[in-house]
Inverse folding.
């Protein structure tokens, strides 16, 4: 199903197409990885809404990315509960081991590091969201293990892509 069809299907549940902008942006971001201007315009055109409405939502919520992000977007919560449970130290650790600052992407394009407001999972603070998954009760050791597992997953994915490439002469 094309992005247009997915958005039209999702939008059919809303009597006011303006209300369908959020789910439409989720679909568009899954499709493109991030939301550059032309994609925002396409979403507005599909829904038949003002482009500025789409732009406003896409730039307001940390959920949406108008700039490219790494394969894994590390979104560390730095709100009160997580801050009290050590998210500041975790941020410093991430910046050190990844050799980037908050807001940056690693040179290999694997990780983008951000801090976000409360993820609504304070009971397992400190919490970090990676893609659609939440990782809670984090400490430095758990964080290192998570980074390792993400690197391994990226390696496996690269291996599968490599294996599916036809060999020269095939
Ligand atoms: S303060 Fe971090 S999840 Fe609520």
């Amino acid at each position: 199903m094309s992005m247009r069809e997915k958005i039209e299907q999702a939008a059919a549940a809303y009597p006011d197409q303006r209300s369908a902008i959020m789910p439409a942006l989720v679909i568009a971001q899954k499709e493109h990885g991030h939301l550059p201007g032309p994609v925002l315009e396409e979403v507005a055109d599909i829904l038949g809404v003002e482009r500025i409405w789409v732009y406003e939502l896409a730039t307001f919520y940390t959920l949406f990315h108008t700039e490219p992000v790494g394969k894994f977007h590390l979104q560390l919560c730095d709100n009160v509960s997580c801050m009290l449970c050590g998210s500041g130290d975790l941020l410093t650790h991430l910046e050190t081991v990844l050799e980037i600052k908050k807001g940056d992407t690693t040179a290999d394009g694997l990780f983008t590091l951000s801090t976000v407001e409360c993820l609504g999972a304070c009971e397992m603070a400190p919490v970090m969201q990676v893609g659609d998954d939440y990782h809670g009760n984090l400490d430095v050791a758990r964080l290192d293990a998570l980074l390792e597992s993400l690197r391994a997953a990226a390696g496996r994915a690269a291996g599968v892509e490599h294996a599916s490439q036809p060999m020269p002469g095939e």
About this structure: The beta strands are 72-77, 111-116, 128-130, 133-135. The helical segments are 3-11, 21-32, 37-47, 51-60, 80-84, 87-98, 140-164. Residues 77, 79-82, 118-119, 121-122, 125, 127 surround FE2/S2 (inorganic) cluster (CB under 6 Å).
